[in-house]
């Protein structure tokens, strides 16, 4: 939603604004409040800040999925944001002594880092596919409930879209997508494994909200030829952004 790799005019919100204009809906303002790597927790926090300052939207659209899963694959707990444990460590350093600071600076030497890399200290959390996905599905569903309650209280429509990913797509892969699918034992491959497991659990958890509040876009590119996905993390081409935007525009036209 933020627009990673896309030019400003080809981000999803920009496509939505253009499509609404083509549909002769011109009395609207489309604001992109997304941030790179945000998950739904951070998105809802952003919404709260907007409401606090007096904003009164007619509709709010969230596009999430990968960033609920990604931090867990990289060693965080379900519900954490990217690099949350790293941020905790940085905050803890405020109380370090001069000796501690010197030792930490010494640890940045390449020779020291090379030696440390030879030792597996077990600090990297191993993810549990079933248990972690259940937690992700539960907390995501709780956040959807919070978002719906805010919409009811402040009189706006709220739509939660689970983004399309190569892991969940049934499309015939293009040359680049074929290369991505062939990876094994990499961060990307682990991401895809967890996306498949967690996406299905989220769908099941929110089945009663499907087609009303929750809209999974797993099959959006199933019939589209050629490469659409740029990586394992849900980033897509500018043309694919337009297709995602069309799904959003249809929802907005039903409520505007």
Walk me through what this model shows.
Helix 1 (12-22) packs across helix 10 (238-253), helix 3 crosses helix 9 (187-205) and helix 7 crosses helix 9. The chain has helices at residues 12-22, 40-52, 66-73, 84-92, 98-106, 110-117, 129-154, 175-181, 187-205, 238-253; strands spanning 59-64, 157-162, 214-216. The protein has 10 helices and 3 strands. The longest helix has 26 residues, at 129-154. By secondary structure, the protein is mainly α. Strands 1-2-3 form a 3-stranded parallel β-sheet, sandwiched between helices. The radius of gyration is 20 Å and the shape is globular. The mean pLDDT is 90.
Residues in helices, as a percent range: 40-55%
* Bulk shape: globular
Spatial order of the strands in the main sheet?
A: 1-2-3
Percent strand? 5-15%
Query: From N to C, what is the helix and strand string?
Result: HHEHHHHHEHHEH
Sheet having the most strands: 3 strands, parallel
Structural class: mainly alpha
The rounded distance between the terminal residues' Cα atoms is: 21 Å
Number of strands: 3
> Unreliable segments (pLDDT under 50, ≥5 consecutive)?
none
Number of helices: 10
């Amino acid at each position: 939603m933020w627009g990673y790799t896309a030019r400003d005019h080809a981000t999803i919100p920009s496509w939505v604004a253009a499509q609404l204009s083509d549909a002769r809906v011109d009395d609207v303002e489309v604001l992109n409040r997304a941030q790179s790597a945000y998950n739904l927790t951070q998105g809802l926090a952003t919404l709260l800040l907007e409401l606090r300052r007096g904003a009164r939207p007619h509709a709010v659209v969230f596009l999430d999925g990968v960033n609920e899963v990604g931090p867990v694959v990289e060693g965080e707990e379900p519900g954490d944001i990217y690099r949350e444990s790293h941020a905790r460590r940085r905050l803890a350093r405020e109380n370090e002594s001069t000796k501690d600071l010197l030792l930490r600076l010494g640890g940045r030497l390449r020779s020291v880092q090379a030696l440390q890399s030879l030792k597996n200290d077990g600090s990297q959390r191993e993810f549990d596919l079933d248990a972690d996905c259940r937690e992700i599905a539960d907390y995501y569903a709780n956040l959807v409930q919070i978002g719906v309650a805010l919409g009811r209280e402040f009189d706006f429509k709220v739509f939660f879209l689970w983004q399309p990913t190569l892991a969940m797509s049934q499309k015939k892969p293009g040359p680049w997508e074929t290369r991505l699918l062939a990876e094994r034992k990499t961060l990307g491959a682990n991401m895809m494994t967890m996306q498949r497991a967690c996406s299905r659990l989220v769908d099941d958890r929110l089945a009663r909200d499907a087609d009303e509040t929750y809209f999974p876009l797993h099959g959006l590119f199933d019939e589209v030829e050629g490469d659409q996905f740029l990586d394992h993390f849900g980033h897509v081409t500018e043309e694919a952004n337009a297709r995602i935007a069309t799904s959003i525009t249809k929802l907005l036209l039903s409520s505007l």
